[in-house]
Amino acid sequence: MTIVDVLTEFAESGGIGVLKPGASLAEVSERLGPPQDGEYFPGRRRKRGEPRNVRYGDVRLEVCCDKLLAVALSTGSGSVDLPSGVSGETEELPSAVTAAQLREAFATAGIRAEEGLWPEPADQLTLVVPRSPADVHFTFRRTDADVSGDSGTVLHSAIARGHHVCG
Ligand SMILES: [Zn+2]
Fold it and tell me: Where is this region: Disordered (predicted)?
């Protein structure tokens, strides 16, 4: 399993393994064990209806009403820890991937990705893969101005965030 495989599966299935928007945290926990705390400001009180942040390795989740709202993976640090599929265990993968590599993998898998239609900073590129219940956004940064096109454009993060109204 390479990071390209993980990201291609994210684009195809809308999630990372069992971690998908809309999934139940209780069911996910049965498979992967309990999540780790992922709060950015531990100890701060959450407002009513505000999702809580948990994580499995470097896969960050927003959770509300026991449902996964968002599944996010930051790849900019050079490596990522991903759930191995065995309860409580993660495995480390090198995470450097360029837009050129991901476009090629998506093309091979027959995945349609659109470029973000909103104004973006000049050093950023976003590919959006339409999925239900949540589109998957792949955001890249142009790190090397000397390399033209997608080869100098490196993935920073991948995220799928669904909509949720507390019941
Ligand atoms: Zn809720």
Answer: 29-49
Question: CB 102: neighbour CB atoms within 10 A?
Answer: 24
Q: Say how many Å lie between the CA of residue 42 and the centre of ligand 1.
A: 20
CA of 65 to the centre of ligand 1 (A): 4
| Any domain includes 96 | yes
- pTM tops 0.90, yes or no: yes
Contact present, 47 and 22 (Cβ < 8 Å): no
Q: Output the CA 131–ligand 1 centroid distance in Å.
A: 21
Residue count of the chain, please give it: 167
Domain count, the chain: 1
Per the structure, the complete domain to which residue 95 belongs is given by 3-38+51-161
DSSP annotation string for 53-67: EEEETTEEEEEETTE
